[in-house]
Amino acid sequence: MSDLRDENKPTVVVSRCLGFSKCRYNGDVIESDFVQGLKEHVNFITVCPEVEIGLGIPRDPVRLVTEQGKIELYQPATGKLYTQEMNQYASDFFESADRINGFILKGRSPSCGIKDVKIYLGKEKSSASMKGAGLFASHAMKHYPYLPIEEEGRLTNYAIREHFLTKLYTFFRFQKVKDSNSMKELVKFHADHKYLLLAYNQTESRILGKIAANHEKKPFKEIIEKYELHLGLAFAKLPSRNNYVNAFLHIFGYFSDTLTSKEKAFVLDRFQKYKEEKIHMSVVLNLLRTYVIKYDHDYLLDQTIWAAYPEELLDIGDSGK
């Protein structure tokens, strides 16, 4: 892998066919607006596992089939199995990988799909099928259980895209804490992410706070591993609007007593409008941030909830899928 990467940007492994090369089985390339927009903000490592194991462009399609209880990568036109080659490539790739922060993979691909990939219950064309993950994607999810791993199609949905970006940049910042080998940096990370964590998962937020406090003075390596586990659990699912409103209310509590009754009513109405999906989260965040700046709450100004990822990447468009 190339080391020519910007250390100030997260590194994302992306399927090469998503706008980088005409390497699909039929020689096509798939354009992704989201991937295109990310190019200035991340280091991309492109992969095409099927080409890497020696399948050409164009090539006869491969599919996942079950045989004797095992999932195989099978090419119907030639009758060949490529399971061993794919597993070896994936194993070698991840053993040599360094500083990966997320994945954007081609959906429904027998190598790269993370879910909804057809797995045929036999080699015959008429075989029934079930759904699962592609072989390369399975290795990715096993090696990086905490990181954001998504398909390009799902990222046209606003909520999934927001979650992916928030998780990507949070774990990128966390990687820097791991590299620092410093409890002081972990305490600062947790303090800066307090309200973002609260918005995602209140239970895990409390657990993470106790881990970061480290009252038992355990070694950094033990603490950081435990913190990473629970950080992964905190970001395992998309957050609910109720959870975000709870975080908003906590922030609001810092200055609510200084507001007029009309100002209070307006802010609380914005919370309700957000809860009812009538306004975007950024409207509420910008309103709260205005008051935080006005009343000069430095602790709150440092919170990552205001911009968990670069503002240039904010896109409230939604495919509805």
From TrEMBL:
Alphabetical list of InterPro entries matching this protein: 2-thiour_desulf (IPR007553), DUF1722 (IPR013560), UCP037004 (IPR017087)
Extent of the signal sequence: none
Domain DUF1722: residue ranges: 194-310
Cross-referenced PANTHER family: INNER MEMBRANE PROTEIN
Name of the protein: Uncharacterized conserved protein YbbK, DUF523 family
Species assigned in the record: Anaerobium acetethylicum
